[in-house]
Amino acid sequence: MAPLLNPYLNFDGNARQAMEYYEEVFGGELSLHTFGEAGGAGEEHADKIMHGMLTATADGFTIMGSDMPPGMEHTSGNNFAVSLSGEEEGTLRGYWDKLSDGGQVSVPLERQMWGDIFGMCTDRFGIPWMVNISTRQG
């Protein structure tokens, strides 16, 4: 699968409603995962969306989104990120190296609890990027 470039939207506690709405608008398949499923988020955030993904729409759109993580404030400057994802580790690491050069890394590109290699950075122009290298077999 070739790398994907798609929007990643952040919400102030209403990600579930927004992602379900986008599913109604665009069709496709929606998967939602909560902070509670990942553990350690606390009861007040347990049902909030840690990661949502709408795929397989009729026009081939992919939209990702989540509620802001516990401890992060939702503002107009952090309500989106550009997400790069796929299985081509060399290609995606190359993008990461270039995007993070001269920028600010908020999550180092490394293996995460869900098994993939993931990182977040803001490039030198202030654009937030998320890179996810899928390591799942099958």
UniProtKB/TrEMBL annotation:
> Which SUPFAM superfamilies does this one have?
Glyoxalase/Bleomycin resistance protein/Dihydroxybiphenyl dioxygenase
Name of the protein this chain belongs to: VOC family protein
> How far does the signal peptide extend, from start to end residue?
none
Q: Mind telling me which Pfam families this protein's record contains?
A: Glyoxalase (PF00903)
Looking at the record, the residues that make up the Glyoxalase/fosfomycin resistance/dioxygenase domain are 9-131
InterPro entries reported for this sequence: Glyas_Bleomycin-R_OHBP_Dase, Glyas_Fos-R_dOase_dom, PhnB-like
Q: Which residues cross the membrane?
A: none
